[in-house]
Amino acid sequence: MANRVDDDGRPMRTGTWVTASAHIITAVIGSGVLSLAWAIAQLGWVAGPATLIIFSLITLFTSTLLADAYRHPDPVTGQRNYTYMDAVRAHLGGLKVRFCGVAQYSNLVGVTVGYTITASISMEMVRGSKCFHGKDKCHASTTLDMVVFGCIQLILCQVPNFHNLSRLSILAAVMSLTYSLIGLGLSIVKVASGTKLNEGGETRTTSATVSEAQRLWRIFQAIGDIAFAYAYSTVLIEIQDTLKSSPAENKTMKRASLVGISTTTIFYLLCGCVGYAAFGEDAPGDLLSGTGFNHPVWLLNVANVCVAIHLIGAYQVFAQPIFSFVETSCRQRWPEVKFVSTDHQITIPFLGGMSFHVNWFRVVWRSAYVAVTTVLAMVLPFFNVFLGLIGAVSFWPLTVYFPIEMYIARAKIPKFSVSWMCLQALSFVCLLISLIAAAGSVEGLVQSLKTYHPFKNEA
Ligand SMILES: *[C@@H]1O[C@H](CO)[C@@H](O)[C@H](O)[C@H]1NC(C)=O
Fewer CB within 10 Å, N side or C side of the chain? Predict the structure, then answer.
């Protein structure tokens, strides 16, 4: 207990590759894993898995570059930077810092709103499981579930910083592996039993009725889905900033990236391919929602509870960097305002005299943030399509462009040398993918807007 502060006076960091891997798995697997069967169905048996593997390799490569950008100028002995934006400022400076900030924080805010929606859909599936899987049709509304989710976040967001999140993150990572396994198991059973598709007798758009143009849009969207299924670069530096400094953070982080990404890739491949084998071209957008499996109900309920718990943790992983960004900026801007800068020590007697620090600004602003994202989620039920667009637009800068540019600046790679050309070519290809996926999302957004009903969620 003697040494609670770091070399720079910040709270001692205690993270290890285990907690970092948990953060990564929590952040990456998202509920994206459930839509991968759909994505693979659009791309087919060869291109689907190949795309998955290519993106996992690109992400692994660029996250290795990013891990070295945490300290500057030297990856091991340089000075720490606490956020992605600070790292970009130290390496590149200028307008790029702004660009990075906009891409990163709009992505983070978007993800928190998106998770509120996805979690509420899962909670609703559990609450209304009798209606979904039975005969009667009940009126479905996720508004109540969003309020419940918001209330839980209201409490959790008082966790002062990312460092204190590791237990929640490990729980969330376990949850995400659990529901992936359930989805996988159900798919395997379905493949093995050879159950006829479309048992419910509902008509679905099958590939035969989809026009060529639509098919192309869907391929674009599928590529986008897969590309963003790995997007955790947004929080990579922030995760790295929870690691203890020996062994060197960049080493630990590379190990955690390898563990996190390979675990996810295995799950993605399994869930995507087996899901595709089970449903064929009709693979649903979400394996666990009513359009996928219908029974056994209890197992689907367990899976959906896992989704909800996972997203509760994942919300925090994405929200904490926003919180600390705003709080740090405000403290720098108004250092003399007591409301912003003072921590009050509060001791709780019955918890063995445990004491913690309360900052009223933190309490008020974080609560307001949760309230606003919850309301946004209620008003914009088609937000997840919009999130696809944010993901598409920010994939290239955050996952590819900045890591590569920072590496070029740090390693002083001469212009037009071979490695420079290779890196730029990779960057350019990823830019094209980003644009293609963005186009796919815009098309999807246009479709969703046609059937827009506020406060109603078509799960
Ligand atoms: C980031 O690193 C640079 C280079 O060492 C340093 O000058 C800067 O103060 C750091 N920024 C923060 C916010 O620590």
Answer: N
